Amino acid sequence: HGSSIHVPRVRFNIDAWQALALDEQEQIMGRTRLDNVLIEPARENSHASLAELTNEAGLALLLDQSMPFGDVFEQGSLWMSCSAHASAFDTVLTSRLGTPANYDQWLDYNQADMGA
After folding, report:
1. CATH code at 75?
2. Per-residue pLDDT of the chain (116 residues; tens, 9 = 90+)
3. Which residue in 55, 29, 53, 54 sits closest to 42, CA to CA?
4. For residues 92 and 23, what is the distance between their CA atoms, to the nearest angstrom?
5. What global pTM score does this model have?
6. How far apart, in Å, are the Cα atoms of 115 and each of 7, 71, 74, 109?
7. Where in the numbering of this chain does the Dyp-type peroxidase C-terminal domain appear (predicted)?
């Protein structure tokens, strides 16, 4: 038994993200930008739909926490994700990658550049 932890650093493409209209950003994330409220119904391929997964009991597969970092050249987040089951990371990643026609479009605007 025990817990598994994943710690990736993710860089954001802020210029490309900011070029999108607010409504498109919200549809991609599946949440409102200003108050982080889940959009109901969220698009099937929204980040919220594909990354915020729960088990049969309705509990989150991952406990996530992030801390932003940045300067004028680079912006992003350092993430820490914890789970009671190592398979949860594969489940969430597989969900986010989906298919070429139905994947988490937030992946188009960020890239993990290190992790443990």
Report:
1. 3.30.70
2. 679 999 999 999 999 999 999 999 999 999 999 999 999 998 999 999 999 999 999 999 999 999 999 999 999 999 999 999 999 999 999 999 999 989 999 999 999 998 76
3. 29
4. 25
5. 0.89
6. 5, 20, 17, 18
7. 1-115
Q: Position 109: which residue type?
A: Y
Q: Give the range of the structural domain holding residue 15, as residue numbers without chain letter.
A: 4-115
Residue whose token pair is 């989150």: 60
What's the per-residue H, E or C state across the chain? CCCEEECEEEEECHHHHHCCCHHHHHHHHCECCCCCCECCCCCCCCHHHHHCCECCCCCECCEEEEEEEECCCCEEEEEEEEECCCHHHHHHHHHHHCECCECCHHHHHEEEEEEC
Cβ pair 112, 8 in contact under 8 A: yes
Question: Could you tell me the end-to-end alpha-carbon distance of the chain, in angstroms, rounded to an integer?
Answer: 20
